[in-house]
Amino acid sequence: MPRKKETITLSIPPGTKEQLEAIARQLNITWGKEPSISGLIVAIAQQSVEVGKPFTLDSNQVNALHKAIKALSDAGQIGEAQTVLTLLLERSNLEAPLRQSLMKQLSQPAPAWRIQIEELIKRQQPFYLVYQNSQGDELAYTVRYAEVRFFERRFYLMIWCEETQDVENDIPDLPELWHNRCLRLDRIESMATIPASGNWRGELGYLEVYLHFRQGLVKAYQPKEDDIKDEVIGDVRQVVRRVVNDFWLIREVSRYWEDCVIVSPENVRDRLKQKLLTLCQLYDIETRS
Predict the structure, then answer these.
(1) What range does the domain containing 90 cover?
(2) Which of 74, 88, 129, 267 sits at 20 to 30 Å (Cα–Cα) from 43?
(3) Are 37 and 99 contained in the same domain?
(4) How far apart are CA 135 and CA 184, in angstroms?
(5) Are residues 242 and 174 in the same domain?
(6) Which string of DSSP letters, residue by residue, matches 218-247?
(7) Are 141 and 78 in a shared domain?
(8) What is the pLDDT of residue 55?
(9) Per-residue pLDDT tens for 217-252?
């Protein structure tokens, strides 16, 4: 037996019938070849279609989603990044320049090297890459260990490489870290298609650094992944950390001011001392010789 159908009578302003037919046609809801208003009403009632204006994002919301797309891409979650991009394009009311920029970004495939690096890390296969540093110099590295890490606001590729000449003059007193590099993912230019020969290392080079947290940080300090010892001794909290990059360590310590002290090794302690002396000179603070 055919299903019993209910009928309703609608009182609508002039021109509304044509508008409903246009929406039905746009959503491909038809009876035969003609748009079906009845079918459109049923689809709306069953919540299988949405009609009306797309939601509008303000500048803060768009900026937040841009950052999310960047973070997902850096973390290697390309599919999720593409999903957020598609959401912005399909559901938000964007101005033409931004829409064009997002469409261009959506049409660009993930860099081949990004997928290659993930695979080579899983296989523990050494590889070659070309990187452009902040000064615009192109540097070639033979990578024998790599991992993606998050520092402050972005992801970086941490590598152990054979080449050391580009940093020996910058950190002559830290030979343990000469082989480590912290690379911005968006500055990696290319990867060689032929993998490097030789063995994969098990980890980055590192130093064991002793830190003393004082005052409120004795209780407030949040342990880090690289902390290998954490204990309260008297009125200080002593943390021993495996440090793979002195730059990020000094950035962290500088935020805490006098509430965090690098105790040892002396060569790492001296690097912070030198930065403090430079600051004193810049601010005309006299220091004892």
Answers:
(1) 59-110
(2) 88
(3) no
(4) 13
(5) no
(6) HHHPPP-TTEEEEEEETTEEEEEEEES-HH
(7) no
(8) 61
(9) 999 999 999 999 999 999 999 999 999 999 999 999
